[in-house]
Amino acid sequence: MRRVVFYNSRINKWLRAPDMLQKRHFFGSCVINNCLYVAGGECEGLQRTLRSAEVYDPNRNRWSCIAEMTTGMVPSTGVVHDGKWFLKGLNSHRQVVSEVYLLASKMWSTTGNEMVIGWRDPSISFNGQLYSADCRDGCKLKVYNRETRSWTRFIDTRHHLGSSRALEAAAFVSLNGKLCIIRNNMSITVINISDPITVTEVDSASMWEAFARKGQHRSFMANLWSTITGRNLKTDIMHCQVLQV
Fold first, then answer.
1. In this structure, is residue 186 part of a structural domain?
2. Residue 213's pLDDT band (cuts 50, 70, 90)
3. Rounded Cα–Cα distance for residues 138 and 143 (Å)
4. 170 within some domain
5. Which long-range contacts (CB under 8 A, 24 or more apart) does 137-145 make?
6. Which of helix, strand or coil describes residue 217?
7. In this predicted model, which residue has the larger pLDDT, 82 or 112?
8. Among 116, 106, 28, 29, which residue's Cα sits nearest to residue 73?
């Protein structure tokens, strides 16, 4: 794919953004300093994984190339942590590789195996710490210890939901100082990191109903959610990035 669209909440419409410079799919993406970065992936017709990367600046409304990765990959997970963009995926030989983009130098380099081993999707940088799922539905979390250079168990909610595709954790999001675990079926678990014992299950339908109870707001949320996920909620959450324009 090359085409890019974005949702403008002010006018309640999807609009076209400039096309990416390189056609790609199965790529990694992130937001740093209100700019959208994409890297790696595959391109139809090319018998190799991509090394190229580019950045979109909403203020200039254009894409620009940045330094290429040292190794092409199809990213499986990625996170922005400590001012760096970490990516982990498979190269053209189906081997696990990892890279880190250093914003200060605008260059890529390889990462240490200590962090890559045990790192799985989804993950999030939260309050200066790097957290990752430790089970399929996200009921267990682990944290990366810089001093020991290893992952350690952080929390076990002891509330295992299941291992089906619908219950698989798709994304971690920070909200009002709490960590939200969003699953493919749109169910959400809210965890207070400062008090890991406090875990609240939130039914997505009830949450949106409480947020938009009547009239225009209710219709707006229903239409937006169905546009993103599909009318029957049979699609999976892929990537969702937010930019200020």
1. no
2. very low
3. 13
4. no
5. 137/161, 137/162, 137/163, 137/167, 137/168, 137/169, 137/183, 138/169, 138/172, 138/181, 138/183, 138/189, 139/189, 141/191, 142/118, 144/115, 144/119
6. helix
7. 82
8. 28
CA distance 222 to 211: 11
Report d(CA 167, CA 154) in Å as an integer: 21
Q: Position 221: which residue type? A: M
Total domains present in the chain? 1
Distance CA 13, CA 225 (A): 13
Residue 192 near residue 176 (C-beta atoms within 8 A): no
Phi, psi of 116 (to 5 degrees): -65, -40
In a 3-state reduction of DSSP, which class is residue 216? helix
* Window from 41-55, 101-115, 175-189, 197-211 with minimum mean pLDDT: 197-211
Tokens representing 104 are 């200060």
Q: Is residue 36 part of a domain?
A: yes
